[in-house]
Amino acid sequence: MNDNISGWNTWLAVFDDWNDVSISEVHGLMTGLMTACNAPDEAVWAKVFEELSFAPLPDEALTLLAEEAEDIVFQLKDKDDAYAYMPLVPDDEHDLYERVMALKQWANGFMTGFGITDCSLSAEENEMLSDLAKIGAIRLEDDEDFEGGEESYLYIYEFARMVPVSFATRKRKPVKEIALIAGLAIDAKTTKELQAEGKLPKPMPPVVDVMNQNRPS
After folding, report:
1. pLDDT in tens, 60-78
2. Which string of DSSP letters, residue by residue, matches the chain?
């Protein structure tokens, strides 16, 4: 599947001005969350990314994320459609190194996304996550050949692709119920905003910083 059909080029364009993490990692995070939760609206997605300490997403990126999440949930709920799920990685026109790194990033994103759902794991799921973590831990220099070449890449790609299919059998819950944002209203103000309005005291500077200011090197 080429980059236009897979959505790779669309994601690149929409996330062009946002680079906290790669689009593959964002897609993995979204997928991990959607294996256990219902697709949230744009406001909830914005809150999720805020609580994960990411920079605010552009409006177009939030729209794409909300739309793609709905599609992923719909796809993973259907046993037949679920097997057609694909991680967001570049097509085989790209160097093997780039594809391996994108899959590594997707794997790390998935583990983050599923991790914040607070779901319990079966023994089989725990083993799959352990293996996925090995993909997320791949280290490869840009001038280094990936051991096993294309054949090994296709093997780990197929494994990673089937993880969401296996994880998506559980009953889903609203994203607003996960511990990350539970109890926080979507329009709740951040600590910094409340401090700026004088409704909360501003924090004292760290003792080390004060000492450094008084005793410059």
Report:
1. 999 999 999 999 999 999 8
2. --HHHHTHHHHHHHTTT--SS-HHHHHHHHHHHHTTBPPP-HHHHHHHHHHTTPPPPPHHHHHHHHHHHHHHHHHHHSHHHHTT-------TTS-HHHHHHHHHHHHHHHHHHHHTTT----HHHHHHHHHHHHHHT----TTSPPTTHHHHHHHHHHHHHHHHHHHTTSPPB-GGGSTTTTT--TTPPPHHHHHHTTSSPPPPPPHHHHHHHHS--
